[in-house]
Amino acid sequence: MRFIVPTVLALLVLPAAPGLAQSGPSDRTVADRLPLFARNNCQQIRDPGNQMFCGDVTLAAAAEKLSSAIEGRLARLPDRLPAIEENAIWIRQRNLSCGIVGQTAIRTDDFDQVKACLLKVTEERAAILRDPDFDCLATNTAAGALICADPSLALAETELNGQVLGLIGKLDPTAARFAFAEYDRWTRERDRKCNLVDKENVPLHELETAEECLADHLKRKTDEIRAAKGDSKKVFGRQVAARIPDTDAVDFCAARIHAANSCGNFLRINRVYAIDSQVTEQEAQVTGEIEMAVLAPFTMCSKVASSCTGTCWDARTGRPQPGAGNKERSAEAFNVTRRLRIQRTFAFVKAADGWRCREDELAPVNSGTASGGS
Fold first, then answer.
1. Helix (H, G, I), strand (E, B) or coil at 227
2. Which residues does residue 277 pair with via DSSP β-bridges, in sequence order?
3. Residue whose C-alpha is closest to residue 324's, from 301, 300, 299
4. Among candidate residues 68, 66, 71, 78, the one with its CA nearest the CA of residue 5
5. How far apart, in whole angstroms, are the C-alpha atoms of residue 103 and residue 6?
6. Are 298 and 305 contacting, i.e. CB atoms less than 8 angstroms apart?
7. DSSP code per residue over 112-160
8. Where are the alpha helices (DSSP H) in 150-210?
9. List of residues 6+ apart from 70 with CB closer than 8 A
10. Is the distance from CB of 273 to CB of 288 less than 8 angstroms?
11. Which of 68, 84, 145, 365 is the most exposed place for a label (fewest CB within 10 A)?
């Protein structure tokens, strides 16, 4: 997973596609006040805030310190993908908090104020990320908040993460990709079983009944890995069928499809819901809704879009483009932090060990929406 680090560092200063920033007298004057502007070819950056970091010595030094803090944080995390998304969100919020809206050029009169603000929030962000307790305090899931609030749960999760990473570290890249996808699925399944989905804004004291469920999950998974004695095949890749054709079955199917297509480089599955099902004695069709977050930009009509989201997308409406196939019809790309939600009907067949998914790709989807992000 180390390959993700350069992506994050690039996002720190270059989240927007290359192109000229808004031009005009005000823009040229601001560029004149940035000593590194010409040397670093900063005019190729469309985001005004990132132009400041590109062209100013003080801001560039602060950005370098933040990049080091980000890299140090990633080295502490068992799952780095949410941190990539969070960094991109922070960049957008950083700009807004300093009075930078979209790609509107910074006014000359505001230069000093904007620079001071960018420097302050960047230094504060670097200090926060250097704190090893930050990820516990900043968790944005109900399960994460409960685990962070309970030392015994936090220790149990740390132990499980360490066991999992040690096991995955022995695998070849393809097997590791499937193992990470399965590990993510464990977490989503855990949150469903412990009734913690969509409970992010619920006070912790109202979620205390889920603590025992979380503890049981962490202990059970840790015991499974210990019992495997280093044999990854006894932990990952064992499940090929679901007990019943439900949300867990759809999640299993979607996770396998994403792993097979290396979708984890670009997208993260956040939530899975089964919203309808038709079940006979030997076959089942389950319509599921899958919510994904974009972790790295990819073209809206490309092989990645088709393989990992099941469709091409219309940049203007945020809706699927039926029949677009894998042909690239536009250079438009999804920005990091965009949310994609698709509905798709999955076919299952009854086997001796349970219900097996018959799907090997997400296309075609029944419907979809793309929202959020900038």
1. helix
2. 286
3. 301
4. 71
5. 24
6. yes
7. HHHHHHHHHHHHHHHHHHTSTTHHHHT--SHHHHHHHH-HHHHHHHHHH
8. 151-168, 173-193
9. 8, 9, 12, 83, 87, 129
10. yes
11. 68
% of the chain at pLDDT higher than 90: 45
Structure tokens at 33: 């006040």
Beta partners for residue 273, in sequence order: 289
Helix (H, G, I), strand (E, B) or coil at 107: coil
Q: What are the tokens at 153?
A: 């749960």
What are residue 69's DSSP bridge partners? none
**Position of tokens 């889920």?**
210
CA-closest candidate to residue 309, choices 332, 293, 287: 293
pLDDT tens-digit profile of 292-344?
988 888 999 999 999 999 999 998 899 998 765 444 456 788 887 789 999 99
The SS3 call for residue 321 is strand
User: Can you tell me the distance from the alpha carbon of 11 to that of 2, in angstroms, rounded to the nearest whole number?
Assistant: 16
C-beta atoms surrounding 290 within 10 Å: 27
d(Cα 312, Cα 363) in Å, to the nearest integer? 10
Tokens for 154? 């936090």
Token match 């030392």: residue?
151
Check: CB of residue 87 under 8 Å from CB of residue 12.
Answer: yes
Calpha distance 274→92 (Å, rounded): 33
User: Would you state the structure tokens that stand for residue 42, as one six-digit string?
Assistant: 């900063």
Report whether 265 contacts 280 (CB < 8 A): no
Tell me the mean pLDDT in the region 1-11: 35
Q: What count of other Cβ atoms lies within 10 Å of the Cβ of residue 159?
A: 15
Do residues 92 and 374 touch, judged by C-beta distance below 8 A?
Answer: yes
Residue 150 above 90 pLDDT? no
pLDDT of 138 = 63
Span 85-103, pLDDT tens digits: 777 778 878 888 888 887 7
H or E stretch including 303? helix 303-309
Tracing tokens 């396998």 back to the chain, one arrives at 256
Q: Which helix (H) or strand (E) holds 323?
A: none
Strands 339-351 and 367-371: antiparallel
Q: Are 368 and 339 in contact (CB under 8 A)?
A: no
d(CA 18, CA 262): 26
Distances (CA, A) of 193 to 148, 204, 274: 19, 17, 14
Q: Which among 89, 85, 90 is positioned nearest to 118, based on CA atoms?
A: 90
